[in-house]
Amino acid sequence: MNKKVFSTKEAVSRFIEDGDSIVMGTALETAIPFAVGHEIIRQGKKDLTLVGPISDMFFDQLIGSGCAKKVVAAWVGNVIMGVGYNMRRAVEVGIPQEIEVED
């Protein structure tokens, strides 16, 4: 059986649309898909709902770039540095935009 293999750029363009809910990082830190996150940022995806048990700095980067409208996660931040700075700004003062948070 022939299966099409997509580059990260193609996969994000084809399968992630503005307003989607995306689940990533469910295997904890060892399998957080940073390449996908960076491509989402490059492509300027918007209004995403980010779902994951723990996100390290991955969700924080997506929040800071204005890609997220909602976060469903137990924690967003960095094990060494604490809560993600972009997450905190978005929740406290709405920069780059207000986001909804569901724990």
SSE blueprint:
Blueprint: H1 8-15, E1 21-23, H2 34-43, E2 48-52, H3 57-64, E3 68-73, E4 77-78, E5 82-83, H4 85-93, E6 100-102
Parallel strand pairs: 1-2, 2-3, 3-6
Antiparallel strand pairs: 4-5
Helix pairs in contact: 1-2, 2-3, 3-4
Q: How would you sum up this structure in a few lines?
A:
With 103 residues, the protein is of the alpha/beta class. The protein has four helices and six strands. It has one domain: Glutaconate Coenzyme A-transferase (3-Layer(aba) Sandwich), CATH 3.40.1080.10.
Task: Supply the key terms.
Glutaconate Coenzyme A-transferase; alpha/beta; 103 residues
What does this structure look like?
With 103 residues, the chain is of the alpha/beta class. The protein has a single domain (12-102), classed as Glutaconate Coenzyme A-transferase (3-Layer(aba) Sandwich), CATH 3.40.1080. It has four helices and six strands, in the order αβαβαβββαβ. It has helices at 8-15, 34-43, 57-64, 85-93; strands at 21-23, 48-52, 68-73, 77-78, 82-83, 100-102. Helix 1 packs across helix 2, helix 2 (34-43) runs parallel beside helix 3 and helix 3 (57-64) packs across helix 4. The longest helix has 10 residues, at 34-43.
